[in-house]
Amino acid sequence: MKQRENWGSRIGFIMAAAGSAVGLGNIWRFPYMAGDNGGGAFILIYLGFVFVIGLSVMIAEFAIGRRTGLAAVGAYKSYSDRWTFAGVIGVLSAFFIMGFYPVVGGWSLAYVFKSLTGLMSDAGAIGDAFGGFIGNPVEPLGWMLVFLVFNILIVAKGIAGGIEKAARILMPTLLVLLAFLTLRSVTLPGASAGLEFIFKPDFSEVSGQTLLAALGQAFFSLSLGMGCMITYGSYLSKKETLPNNALIVTALDVGVAILAGVAIFPALFSFGMEPTAGPGLVFVVVPIIFAEMGAIGPLFGAVFFIALTVAALTSSVSLLEVVVAYLIDQRGMERKKSVYSAGGIMIVTGILSSLSLGVMSGVTIFGVGFFDFFDILTDKIFLAIGGMLLAIFAGWVVKKEDLYDELTNSGEKEFGLFNIWYNLIKYVIPIAVAVVAVMGITDIEQ
Ligand code: PHE
């Protein structure tokens, strides 16, 4: 049997897993979700979900991936054929997320160049420029294709050689860039209003929808509920301790989201803008903020969008890898061939969702265009269901001893919180996710 690929080093694994977690979810989505949902209260609820539900599910995904040495579908299937569907939901989620993610990745790439070529010369025109750009039938498609080609090239190179190498260089770059931007933002006059907005919770506006949005954001941002961390865990050496690694990845992910919030809101309030700009927040408000900074603005802008593109890329490669690992493990395909076929489908869905923001805006599924459809379907439905199924599977199908064995490296390492974790996974998380999902969905329908 051919030896399964492995991560080249521990730090490489952490970088790759954190690279998967830290992405558009943290820098593009988190600030606008927080802005739309009232700021501090949303952030607190989100943090609660991340550390109670997300961290536990991540530990379970790592454990199941490494135990079975298989990606999502194979891992479920190796315990019971009846559970194959849960893995398949994960592969489908990867396709759906990749239906819109490369579009935003492409925008980000485009904005690196736009920042340097006059976008910020007229702050008043930036909003219209964004609307015009994403609605254009050709330009964003080109950028999305470039972004997807990067993904295909990296994943075709395999685990240690491609994804890990890229993440090891790109992730630290991102952290440095963000820290730099955050410092700039909090030292602007009037920045404290922005800090108050994110750190002073107001629970009066919290609804079922807020809860579901926070839960979906937690799963999305940590790359959970669709087998991604099962797949990454399956490449991890038996020597590593899983709970520690999960905690580091979670802390990094939260850290970057909060950094992004602290980079954006103080500046936003300092310039007297509204926090509820929606998905355009990063692409409209941030360039305006930079434009107001004078001559240095375009450079700051370019740096910001390089960071965003980098973050997006290390996440999208993990999504592509979920599909590729499935094709390799379950369909016996070669890596390169799997990458090209999965990538090919993603090019088609990417084109559909990019066009849905312009010339194809009339074509809708359940009342929304392709872009929103892919986004809402994964964030609000698939990931929550996937996370709940994973918890039920770990709690009720996998043997408790197996999990204990995996999480303590056969008793060699301590995991003092094992029983608490196990009860969370077995009882609390399935019920909590179901309650939040029902509350959120009934709330939307009203
Ligand atoms: N976590 C990534 C982000 O925040 C998105 C992602 C979701 C990646 C699910 C892999 C799996 O951008």
From TrEMBL:
Family: Belongs to the sodium:neurotransmitter symporter (SNF) (TC 2.A.22) family.
Family annotation (PROSITE patterns): NA_NEUROTRAN_SYMP_1 (PS00610), NA_NEUROTRAN_SYMP_3 (PS50267)
TM stretches of this protein: 12-31, 43-64, 85-113, 141-163, 175-199, 211-235, 247-271, 277-296, 340-369, 381-398, 418-441
Main location: membrane
SUPFAM superfamilies listed in its UniProt record: SNF-like
GO cellular component: membrane
Keywords (A to Z) from UniProt: Membrane, Symport, Transmembrane, Transmembrane helix, Transport
Cited InterPro entries: Na/ntran_symport (IPR000175), SNS_sf (IPR037272), YocR/YhdH-like (IPR047218)
Topology in membrane: Multi-pass membrane protein
Entry's localization field: Membrane
Extent of the signal sequence: none
GO molecular function, one term: symporter activity
Species assigned in the record: Tindallia californiensis
UniProt-recorded name of the protein: Transporter
Domain of life: Bacteria
